[in-house]
């Protein structure tokens, strides 16, 4: 199905074609001609009927959400929610006694945590470009977490703040 954007592009091309022959038509006249070519009474009728979602012409990706393996729900909540400040987006279990799949989010960073055996391998590292890494370091230091008090490390590509979860996964926050 033709989209509104495609029809407008057709009208623009039609005007350009006429211009190469020293003919000038208005944009609205070109839209009317395109509507006629598409089988509509007029542009208003065409615009109402045409799909207004843009046509997808190339592959694109919205975002990547990492899945990290966890083994203990209480430790995961303590580390990711209490210490790192993530909030829970959703929780899923197929039944009350089955493994947890948990979606967490903080400031646009989304991570999924899974107790399911096949979802991820322990020891994964996430690299997270970060703004205002000093404030994050100060916030984490102030919590006096018993299993880690991360410090900034200067690297060739920027400042890195690395945290290790209770399951062997690492998150490298970096500002460069």
TrEMBL record:
PROSITE patterns the UniProt entry points to: VOC
Name of a matching Pfam family: Glyoxalase_7
Record carries keyword GTP-binding: no
Domain VOC: 60-176
Gene3D superfamilies for this protein: 2,3-Dihydroxybiphenyl 1,2-Dioxygenase, domain 1
Transmembrane portions of the chain: none
Keywords: Antibiotic resistance
The family this protein is said to belong to: Belongs to the bleomycin resistance protein family.
Protein name: Bleomycin resistance protein
Taxonomic placement: Bacteria, Pseudomonadati, Pseudomonadota, Gammaproteobacteria, Pseudomonadales
């Amino acid at each position: 199905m033709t989209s509104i954007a495609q029809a407008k592009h057709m009208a623009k091309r039609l005007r350009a074609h006429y211009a190469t022959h020293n003919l000038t038509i208005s944009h609205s006249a070109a839209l009317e001609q395109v509507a006629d070519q598409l089988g509509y009474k007029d542009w208003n009728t065409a615009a109402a009927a045409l799909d207004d979602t843009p046509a997808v012409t190339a592959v694109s990706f919205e975002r990547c959400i990492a899945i990290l393996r966890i083994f203990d729900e209480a430790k995961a909540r303590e580390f990711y929610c209490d210490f790192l400040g993530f909030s829970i987006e959703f929780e899923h279990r197929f039944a009350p006694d089955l493994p947890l799949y948990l979606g967490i989010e903080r400031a646009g960073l989304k991570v999924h945590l899974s107790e399911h055996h096949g979802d991820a391998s322990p020891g994964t590292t996430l690299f997270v470009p970060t703004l205002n890494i000093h404030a994050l370091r100060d916030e984490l230091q102030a919590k006096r977490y018993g299993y880690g008090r991360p410090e900034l490390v200067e690297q060739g590509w920027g400042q890195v703040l690395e945290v290790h979860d209770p399951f062997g996964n690492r998150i490298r926050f970096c500002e460069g």
